[in-house]
Design the sequence.
């Protein structure tokens, strides 16, 4: 178990997790919600629009992997680490679902994927170094903002793209669950200024990944 690992082992594991998130094809433990949706015809413009939105969501899931890995690396208690690792497993499904859907739509992931990972990993480490209540509070707020973002993207997807919509709907449900779990585990409400900074960071990712 991760709690028995020494610091060098944990660092090696963190590097391994990072390389896998960035470079290896993601593997889902659960089937994609898109698999149960019959295919629909999209115009070239609709495909481009959906692919761009799904690129943003893929970048967001890369960031989620990095945040959870960073927080988990320095988590103060085994209970918090376990909660982070459980959520990270579901985030890997999200990453795999988004990745497959981007390919289906003929799009590509963000060219800045390593940057999203590295930046978010650093933020995750900083959040994880705080007391557990604050670290879990960071999860709670992140998941709340991500869920709101997913609801916004659901409204912006082309109406015909039922497959992407099925993926985003399931992701939004999972994110809400992650947030509730973190709150129930003692995650504190973060100060408004921190919540505002997190929103700005998320908005930067949303705008840049939509283009590159
Ligand atoms: Fe996610
Ligand atoms: Fe999540």
Sequence:
């Amino acid at each position: 178990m991760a709690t028995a690992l020494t610091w060098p082992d944990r660092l090696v594991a963190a590097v391994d997790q990072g390389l896998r998130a960035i470079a290896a094809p993601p593997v889902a433990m659960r089937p994609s919600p898109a698999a149960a949706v019959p295919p629909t015809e999209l115009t070239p413009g609709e495909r481009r629009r959906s692919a761009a939105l799904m690129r943003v969501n893929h970048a967001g899931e890369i960031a989620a992997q990095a945040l959870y890995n960073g927080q988990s690396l320095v988590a103060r208690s085994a209970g918090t680490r376990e909660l982070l690792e459980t959520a990270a497993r579901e985030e890997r499904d999200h990453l795999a679902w988004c990745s497959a859907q981007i390919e289906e739509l003929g799009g590509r992931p963000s060219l800045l994927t390593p940057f999203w990972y590295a930046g978010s990993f650093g933020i995750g480490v900083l959040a994880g170094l705080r007391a557990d209540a604050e670290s879990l509070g960071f999860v709670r707020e992140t998941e709340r903002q991500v869920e709101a973002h997913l609801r916004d993207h659901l409204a912006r997807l082309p109406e015909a793209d039922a497959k992407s919509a099925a993926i985003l709907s399931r992701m939004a449900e999972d994110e809400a669950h992650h947030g509730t779990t973190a709150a129930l585990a003692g995650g504190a409400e973060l100060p408004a200024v921190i919540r505002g900074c997190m929103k700005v960071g998320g908005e930067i990712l949303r705008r840049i990944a939509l283009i590159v």
User: Anything to note?
Assistant: The chain has seven helices and no strands.
